[in-house]
């Protein structure tokens, strides 16, 4: 937007009227618009060394909250500081426009609950609905961000739905494909029934809640001796219909007991008899049970038992999930196709514990990661085989489970328990309160289910991730060294595909049998995809650009890469097997946001030199939850693509909570509207409150409106009053002496101790701010700035009031005013990134006191805005550590005297 009035003047400050911080900030905003301040500052910095910054993209489907404001403030402070220290800083806003947050809104609006609903509607219409809301609150975002004083470019923003962005995402994926870092595998993944798609493991950790679940001990009857039952304990009764095995620990001690009250024989872990008897020792003393035999876990391996339910007893193994069955069965699977012959037996693994339950864990390979791993190892299911998974995409039982068909799995718990009680197989039924994962978008409880998905390899590359991360700076360092590094060391392969519609489509075209593949960037070369979890070896065409798709398909003029625009496109088979069709999945939106360093500039199709000059980013910042989100995906992709971390410096903040310590909730209305806070106290107060809080150290902050109010009364008002006092004394000098005060930086050689002291304190502040900001320690800076404000208002001005009023003659008054001006000028320049409004307001009032020739001020040629000025340089001639120590001792003596007066109740006057 061009300047409305580049020669605009700022309204003169009237010391006789009350000062409304919010209204005065709006005056500053109008002035900035008049002179196009932000874009003008960018233009003025062209040609300087580049400082690169990546802005993590938020969704515009919701309004900005205090967490967004916190992170926006941190980013604004750091980038303003970089600009004022001689760098060119491009600041582009970005938008996350794809994925579950958008689709879930549309599903709620249209009552969509399944894939069939979307297909009936048509993906084109569904995506049109999604597109219609992705920027729903963009104008509100812009208004809020600009009102808070953040300088960032909305007109040159990036959006993940842009075709250029999506094409670069294809390129990123293609590079990983080329390096054999992508595979399709059957794994047990977190799955959201509310959004009908698998999630990545890090997404599953984003929303835990304490819930009460059933905890039941179930009896499995031994085939060899029907009078004896193996006892297994579970908190997911809904998985029992899919049971295929029971797992013990090979080294734990197990006992067969005779329960006299039930007149039944049970086998369970010796240490866990308390699961049956609240006080096992007392029960033994009272002879409620008798130990008949003792075993090691290995002694139980191979025992067969009667299935709880008949659904899969006679079931024949399924076909491989990726293609038609191979002509010969894999060597690792058992010869018999029936589960009755290879399942329903005891197996062993060390993951079983003796801390809770019975020491015997029921195995449902479709619904547990360990269950699946062990069942594959033991030959109960094959690596390529879909284990019994009798639920649909919404988590509802299918016809395979006839007794509970049509029931949502979590709702079916009570009916399954009722059924097993009727058959006498529920031995103990209680409840357990525990922390359980929920879908971060739909709010529904997650389940774990086996599903074929696409992965980016992470396991085996953890050392590279850790090493690259260690070459970056984290603030606070402990988060990067502990929390994030621990996550990296234990990272698992990343599920990047979603069975959804509104997102960047996976650029993979395959034949119906998944056989034909073209290797990216090698038009005539083919390769196999094979993995421990991937069968049969498959070949798939991977497309890395629009041009490549047009070349292979013969379709031209592509301008949109969404599913409804490309799913119909086919690629002729090189093997005469008909046409290749695109696989259905779209990318996880985290893959898109992790690709933003490249996709925001359409790399490598455009801006190659620009990207290479700005990568890695000098700075990024987000909240703590991004250690398992954006920070992680950025690092994985950058490590795989370029072998380096994508950032040099990273500030991670804690979370802003409601005053009661709970998560801020719109429905609970437990926090004040950020816009109302700004309307009451101004943006500067809110910014300073957030930055001068534990949240910038990575801790949580309980947001209290009183804290913002205190910033106004204890920080902003004292600074304003110091400035107004200066204006008043300059006016008094004009009135009584007829002298127009002009700031003279060369006349600061006062011999007055207090003048020398406050000037020395200014230099110390400049040096400290520069040092700490270059180390990204924002939390140490604000306190020192506030100290100088306090020293100016409560010490310098109070001690020098008579001098400033002219009682010691013109020369001394001029020295004092010059010193006061220099201190205010230093404060507004060092504070400008933190409180951009008040400092601009004060600066505009100081400008008339500049000398006619400003070349000696070190402020540059354009002084229309404080934010055009460079950060102040330390003036070594004013450093005086001796004076600082002496006045510090004086202050200590005075404070001690005040304390004694208060204790003795002696008035100050």
From TrEMBL:
Residue ranges of domain Methionyl/Valyl/Leucyl/Isoleucyl-tRNA synthetase anticodon-binding in the record: 755-908
Aminoacyl-tRNA synthetase class Ia domain mapped to chain residues: 28-518, 541-697
GO BP of this protein: isoleucyl-tRNA aminoacylation
InterPro entries, A to Z: aa-tRNA-synth_Ia (IPR002300), Anticodon_Ile_ABEc (IPR033709), Ile-tRNA-ligase (IPR002301), Ile-tRNA-ligase_type2 (IPR023586), M/V/L/I-tRNA-synth_anticd-bd (IPR013155), Rossmann-like_a/b/a_fold (IPR014729), tRNAsynth_Ia_anticodon-bd (IPR009080), Val/Leu/Ile-tRNA-synth_edit (IPR009008)
Entry's EC annotation: 6.1.1.5
EC class name: ligase
Sorted UniProt keywords: Aminoacyl-tRNA synthetase, ATP-binding, Cytoplasm, Ligase, Metal-binding, Nucleotide-binding, Protein biosynthesis, Zinc
Tree of life domain: Eukaryota
Keyword Ribosomal protein: no
GO molecular function: aminoacyl-tRNA deacylase activity; ATP binding; isoleucine-tRNA ligase activity; metal ion binding; tRNA binding
Annotated catalysed reactions: tRNA(Ile) + L-isoleucine + ATP = L-isoleucyl-tRNA(Ile) + AMP + diphosphate
Family: Belongs to the class-I aminoacyl-tRNA synthetase family.
PANTHER family per record: ISOLEUCINE--TRNA LIGASE, CYTOPLASMIC, SOLEUCYL-TRNA SYNTHETASE
Name by which UniProt lists this protein: Isoleucine--tRNA ligase, cytoplasmic
Species name: Sporidiobolus salmonicolor
Source species taxonomy: Eukaryota, Fungi, Dikarya, Basidiomycota, Pucciniomycotina
GN (gene name): SPOSA6832_03031
């Amino acid at each position: 937007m061009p300047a409305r009035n580049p020669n605009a003047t700022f309204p003169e400050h009237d010391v006789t009227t009350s000062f409304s911080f919010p209204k005065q900030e709006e005056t500053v905003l109008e002035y900035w618009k008049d002179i196009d301040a932000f874009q003008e500052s960018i233009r003025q910095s062209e040609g300087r060394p580049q400082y690169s910054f990546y802005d993590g993209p938020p969704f515009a489907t919701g309004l900005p909250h205090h967490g967004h404001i916190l992170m926006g403030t941190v980013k604004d402070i750091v980038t303003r500081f970089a600009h004022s220290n001689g760098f060119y800083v491009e600041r582009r806003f970005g938008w996350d426009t794809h994925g579950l947050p958008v689709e879930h809104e549309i599903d709620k609006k249209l009552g969509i609950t399944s894939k069939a609903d979307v297909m009936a509607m048509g993906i084109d219409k569904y995506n049109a609905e999604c597109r219609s809301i992705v920027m729903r609150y963009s104008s509100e975002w812009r208004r809020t961000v600009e009102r808070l004083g953040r300088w960032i470019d909305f007109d040159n923003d990036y959006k993940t739905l842009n075709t250029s962005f999506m094409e670069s995402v294809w390129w990123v994926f293609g590079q990983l494909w080329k390096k054999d870092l992508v595979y399709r595998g059957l794994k047990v993944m977190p799955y959201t029934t509310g959004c009908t798609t698998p999630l990545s493991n890090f997404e599953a950790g984003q929303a835990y809640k304490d819930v009460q679940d059933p905890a039941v001990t179930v009896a499995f009857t031994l085939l060899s001796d029907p009078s004896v039952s193996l006892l297994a304990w579970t908190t997911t009764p809904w998985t029992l219909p899919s049971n295929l095995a029971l797992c013990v620990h090979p080294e734990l001690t197990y006992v067969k007991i005779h329960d006299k009250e039930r007149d039944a024989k049970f086998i369970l872990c010796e240490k866990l008899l308390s699961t049956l008897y609240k006080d096992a020792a007392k029960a033994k003393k009272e002879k409620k049970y008798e130990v008949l035999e003792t075993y090691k876990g290995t002694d139980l391996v191979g025992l067969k038992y009667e299935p709880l339910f008949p659904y899969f007893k006679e079931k024949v193994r399924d076909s491989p999930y990726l293609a038609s069955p191979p002509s010969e069965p894999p060597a690792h699977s058992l010869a018999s196709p029936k589960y009755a012959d290879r399942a329903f037996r005891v197996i062993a693994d060390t993951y079983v514990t003796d801390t809770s339950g019975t020491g015997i864990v029921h195995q449902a390979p479709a619904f547990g990661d360990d269950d699946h791993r062990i069942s594959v190892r033991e030959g109960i299911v094959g690596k390529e085989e879909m284990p019994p998974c009798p639920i649909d995409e919404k988590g509802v039982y299918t016809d395979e489970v006839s007794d509970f068909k049509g029931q949502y799995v979590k709702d079916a718990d009570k009916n399954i328990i009722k059924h097993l009680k009727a058959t006498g197989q529920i031995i103990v039924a209680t409840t357990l309160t525990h922390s359980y994962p929920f879908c971060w978008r739909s709010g529904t409880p997650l389940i774990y289910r086996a599903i074929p998905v696409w992965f980016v390899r992470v396991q085996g590359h953890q050392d590279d991730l850790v090493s690259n991360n260690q070459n970056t700076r984290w603030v606070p360092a402990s988060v990067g060294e502990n929390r994030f590094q621990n996550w990296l060391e234990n990272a698992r392969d990343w599920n990047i595909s979603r069975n959804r519609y509104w997102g960047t489509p996976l650029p993979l075209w395959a034949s119906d049998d998944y056989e034909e593949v073209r290797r990216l960037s090698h038009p005539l070369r083919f390769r196999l995809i094979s993995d421990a979890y991937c069968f049969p070896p498959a070949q798939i065409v991977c497309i890395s650009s629009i041009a490549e798709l047009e070349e292979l398909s013969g379709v031209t003029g592509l301008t949109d890469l969404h599913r409804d625009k490309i799913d119909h496109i086919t690629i002729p088979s090189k093997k005469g097997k008909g046409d290749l069709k695109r696989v259905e999945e779209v990318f996880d939106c985290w893959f898109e946001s992790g690709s933003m360093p490249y996709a925001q500039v359409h790399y490598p199709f455009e801006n190659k030199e620009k990207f290479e000059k700005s990568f890695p980013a000098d700075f990024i910042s987000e909240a703590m939850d991004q250690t398992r989100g954006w920070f992680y995906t950025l690092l994985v992709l950058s490590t795989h693509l370029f072998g380096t971390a994508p950032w040099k410096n990273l500030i991670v903040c804690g979370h802003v909570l409601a005053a009661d310590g709970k998560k801020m909730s719109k429905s609970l209305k437990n926090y004040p509207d950020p816009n109302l806070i700004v309307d009451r106290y101004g943006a500067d107060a809110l910014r300073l409150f957030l930055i001068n809080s534990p949240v910038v150290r990575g801790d949580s902050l309980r947001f209290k409106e009183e804290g913002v109010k205190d910033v106004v009364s204890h920080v902003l008002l004292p600074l304003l009053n110091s400035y107004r006092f200066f204006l008043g004394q300059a006016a008094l000098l004009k009135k009584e002496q007829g002298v127009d005060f002009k700031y003279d930086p060369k006349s600061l050689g006062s011999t007055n101790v207090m003048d020398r002291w406050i000037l020395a304190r200014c230099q110390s502040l400049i040096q400290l701010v520069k040092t700490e900001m270059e180390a990204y320690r924002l939390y140490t800076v604000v306190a020192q700035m506030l100290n100088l404000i306090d020293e100016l208002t409560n010490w310098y001005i109070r001690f020098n009031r008579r001098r400033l009023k002219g009682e010691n003659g013109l020369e001394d008054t001029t020295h004092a005013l010059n010193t006061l001006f220099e201190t205010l000028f230093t404060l507004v320049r060092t504070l400008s990134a933190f409180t951009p409004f008040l400092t601009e307001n004060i600066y505009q009032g100081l400008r008339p006191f500049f000398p006619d020739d400003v070349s000696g001020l070190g402020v540059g040629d354009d002084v229309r805005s404080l934010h055009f000025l460079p950060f102040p340089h330390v003036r070594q001639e004013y450093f005086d550590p001796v004076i600082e120590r002496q006045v510090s001792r004086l202050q200590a003596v005075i404070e001690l005297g005040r304390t004694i007066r208060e204790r003795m109740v002696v008035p100050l006057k």
